Model the fold of this input.
Amino acid sequence: PSVPRHTNRLINEKSPYLLQHAHNPVDWYPWGEEAFDKAKTENKLIFLSVGYSTCHWCHVMEEESFKSKEIGEIMNEHFVCIKVDREERPDVDKVYMTFVQATSGGGGWPMSVWLTPDLKPFAGGTYFPPEDGVHRVGFRTVLLRIAEQWKENKDALLESSQRILEALRHTLEIRVQGQEPPPPAKEVMDTCFQQLSRSYDEDYGGFSRSPKFPTPVNLNFLFTYWALHRTTPEGARALQMALHTLKMMAHGGIHDHIGQGFHRYSTDQHWHVPHFEKMLYDQGQLAAVYSRAFQISGDEFFADVVRDILLYVSRDLSDQAGGFYSAEDADSYPTTTSREKREGAFCVWAAKELRDLLPDPVEGATEGTTLGDVFMHHYGVEEAGNVDPMKDPHEELKGKNVLIARCSPELTAARFGLEPGQLSALLQECQQRLSSARAQRPRPHLDTKMLAAWNGLMISGFAQAGAALAEQGYVSRAAQAAAFLRTHLFDPDSGRLLRSCYRGKHSSVEQSTVPIQGFLEDYVFVIQALFDLYEASLEQDWLEWALHLQHMQDKLFWDPKGFAYFSTEAGDPSLLLRLKDDQDGAEPTPNSVAVTNLLRAACYSGHMDWVEKAEKILAAFSERLQKIPITLPEMVRATAVFHHTLKQVVICGDPQGEDTKEMLQCVRSVFSPNKVLMVADGDSAGFLYRQLPFLASLERKDGKATAYICSNFTCSLPVTSVQELRGMLSP
Done:
């Protein structure tokens, strides 16, 4: 690499996204007082650009505009330019994305927003091409027009920005109107189910035509709906919708059949051609949802997908200190000599390449059959490439194949005169060869930032998989990551979580000079992870830390007037709005998960004020839950958990005893959305006994491990039979 011509202030940052822009000719500033002071002192507008390091269109805008010396000069002359990594600062991203969506009807990244010197937005959009086109104004033109407006009509711009801000404040208020109770669970569940059912794709699964997103929140809702309606036709349909969607995703090109894990989303209806980036939050949630599919169906297919996801994360997204990295990019260099990156280059194949790698004749198959023939038939490979040109406008995938399982193993085996067991071994051999070949290609960029929230989602994925599949190694990996969080993303002096840390030189873990404090989502997803980890490991330290963090979350984010939690804490003058997210998207909105966390926390501590808080959150979102519950499927699920009351499943016994282990395995193998698990091991000085005095009254029957199903700390008769316990766990 040549010596860079330009270096700006981003060179001192830790975020991989900000560092990608450190050599632009734009005089970028990070979000902070230095930039704000400059804007005020020089009376300049601010240009705010928000993105993330694995964002395809962010790369495009950088190449076209931010690397242009000429456009850089216009930006530097007229604006104070600020770059923000949306994953590092979701608070800044949410405020200005709310503005862009409200004023333009759409949103996305890169996000481009123009602000007054006091940070109020007045114009914005997403990606801009550098020059004017037939249908679109170019970035250079927009910059010059806005600079001109500021010169000629400053007062009008300031007035307009103030008006916009007031309107946003008014429309975004989520609060309890009077003494509103939480909405009724049955109606909200039924409406959500009907809305999902209407948008369901009967052929390929999923809940839209295209693009198609995994949306684990929808699938988790459907599993809970089935569990509470399992004897009805609606319950059967909910289960069929969820399992069919998961199967079609696993067969599709959105699933990496060679390198494991799932890509971000599919650009088509068939889950075939993905947008190739891989995000940690998808892997964590999908590991958990495929684990539930295995619990419910007993089908090893789903367990294999869980193992596949966790293999990918363990190998490619794991820091040696125990944390998890954020993402892998969609774009990479096709060869070591390429000058230009292409989307999907690391993952796609030409037919000739596959034939050359898999030339061996297959013993016992139809005469003349090679490994390549079998593999290419099974995964839909075509000589001219299998990507629809409509899904490849820039011709980056021309002549290439995105692998998609087009046939069942039985059909492929029959086509070549093979036994299904033999086919499985052959495909495995092919996958190993292709994996070795792919390892020679230049890898996509890896975002080595480690975020508390996303690490929380991944810990839940490992812990739930470990419990459902009875794989102790997964539980140990979850515990290693939780210990990493406690060491690197928790400040024991203040008792608070931090948002992010970074892989440094020589594989050390580094922190920013001024660490970013944790947001609501960090607390919510880490608390959920610690409860999941306690249930999988029975280590009470995790439970104790979870309850400490729940108290801290209440202190920092609770809205005592309108109820529910704000996404950010009070007291940051650079944030114009304190928002409450009201939509479950790629990740569930934090208030949705907080409801279930609060109910679990109450079960483990006896603090009934947490149940009241859960009730108040549901009341605050009541109108939205009743009108358009499909926007909050995770909160709808939590509404059902609230109304059905969590069962405390208490196993009295020695955690190392075989009879106790058998009972624990029974509880973990059954999908029951409204249970919490705990072990009363007789240690009256232990954390759980101090929290829940009623545990001291529960005893083993006839010296055997004994289960009690308790509700609001009132317990059933003792049960020593695993079969009887299994029956009692059904909702």
Q: What stands out?
A: The chain has 27 helices and 21 strands. The mean pLDDT is 95. The longest strand covers residues 45-51.
